[in-house]
Specification:
Elements lengths: L1 E4 L5 E4 L2 H5 L5 E6 L8 E5 L3 E2 L8 H4 L7
Antiparallel strand pairs: 1-2, 1-5, 2-3, 3-4
Amino acid sequence: MFLKENQSEDLVRISHIDQLLSPLESEVLARRQAGEEEQDECQFAKSDLVFPSGEPLPRCWIDQKYQIR
């Protein structure tokens, strides 16, 4: 799955979808898609990521207490 980093607007390829879907995880392991060679994996804060269209991530992916509110 590809997401976009807010500041750089680079695409990042999410390595572990389960990290992305878990509201208990604040960061995800991903590879930046910049340049011709595949970049090394690094941690990205979910708060810095959006869908390529610019739409924010669903609240149930980032907020542990989304069902209480």
